[in-house]
Amino acid sequence: MIGSDGSALSAELNALRKALFPPASQKVLRSFSSGEAAKLVGVADGYLRQLSLAGRGPQAETGAGGRRSYTLGQINELRDLLDDAPKGKRYVPHRSDGEHCQVLAVVNFKGGSGKTTTAAHLAQFLALKGYRVLAVDLDPQASMTALHGYQPEFDVDANETLYATIRYDGDQRPLPEVIRKTYFAGLDLIPANLELMEFEHDTPKALADRGSEPFFGRIATALGTVEADYDVMVLDCPPQLGFLTLGALCAATAMIVTVHPQMLDVMSMCQFLLMTSDMLGVVQEAGAHLDYDFLRYVVTRYEPSDGPQTQMVGFMRSLFRERVLTHPMLKSTAISDAGLSKQTLYEIGRESFSRATYDRAIEALDNVNGEILALMHQAWNRPT
Asked: AAA domain: which residues (predicted)?
């Protein structure tokens, strides 16, 4: 009965995808108005119009009423055109040789903390800002994968997840073979499916084999083979403290812990922190190297009018101080409604919501992600 229910649900979800994204059942990112494009590039809208009239750079598509719009790929072309590093005018934000690739692990082992929502929006925000981003789905439930247009049981076959690169047998594959392009220019994805659970099952058997690389270093080694191609990697970790999560934390340069400001969620986070500390201590003794640029707590699904939630946020700030991000991620119907069509708020236009609802949600997202970007710049010793 369970299997038949799962198969029926899978077929319905696939039919929904075909209905939502015809004709090829593939997601396509919307175009951005000239005003949005100018803001993303960091210039005035009038300057983009001057470039267009002069025949320089990509030409905007002109719609009804003469409205001009650009794809994200064209926005990146504009960045390349305008970038003049020798004069200090940087429009392409890629890291330099002296700046290490940022590996951001988004973690919590309590479901409903907003972990995948946070990771997906962060990856897309950074891509919109012009960074080269690799999103790594380490959760066998594969929600990050689904949000980016791939249905795990239909589109991700055997040996096409990160497991293909970190497995212990002779069927290993190079990581570039499992990386996929997404409809976001500059954002690549390592998809997930249930196959990732095999790593949790294989690792206890492999622990006795002293000839193989320890489990805690395998993800770092795999990601290291492609780090030259990216500025930042965003790891969506499983909601459990297993071998995959520990491997991700050993590969990370920063940890982002999501927490919903309710007592049960905070109590769960307390156990997570204690367990994580103990486990990381064990792998450090076994030879793991941990060096985090920053650790931050992100308050998610926050309702400012909820008195107990406000008290809980104040309690966390009194304990963790600057390690709690200044801006919380507000609970928003806009994000929930976007999720109904397997989309994020960054890919849905403002016209899909009331202006106040959309503006409130996008401002909260930008504030949270902007804080994380500022922390990345600090780690790179860049001006914020």
From this structure: 102-273
